[in-house]
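Propose amino acids for all 117 sites.
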């Protein structure tokens, strides 16, 4: 059974940092790309970052580029999202998934990130 366990969300002031973790199991981690998504209140879920577990290639949407960093620890089957210089508009439920952007095979549960101004 594929499982993706996201954690690390919380309440932080603008300008602060959080690190999200996504622990994966039930599939061959190295064979897939893992993506981070977020859904703000009243908005559609959007893909914000992606990492290829096989070669480490990463990508970001413009709104988080330079502030967020995605990484993976293949020995732990875990993907991280380091979020720095957080803004109130980053407030959302954050999800990890097997797949990126518009191609997702499995979703994990979300973790709430709230950035206060």
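Proposal:
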């Amino acid at each position: 059974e594929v499982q993706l366990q996201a954690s690390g969300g919380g309440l932080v002031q603008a300008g602060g940092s959080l690190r999200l973790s996504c622990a994966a199991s039930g599939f061959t981690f190295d064979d897939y790309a893992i993506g981070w998504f977020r859904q703000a209140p009243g908005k559609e879920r959007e893909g914000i970052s992606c990492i290829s577990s096989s070669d480490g290639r990463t990508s970001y949407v413009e709104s988080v580029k330079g502030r967020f960093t995605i990484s993976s620890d293949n020995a732990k089957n875990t993907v991280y999202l380091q979020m720095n210089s957080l803004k109130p508009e980053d407030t959302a439920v954050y999800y990890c998934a097997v797949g990126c952007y518009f191609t997702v095979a499995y979703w994990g549960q979300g973790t709430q990130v709230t950035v206060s101004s």
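The mean pLDDT is 96. The longest strand covers residues 92-100.
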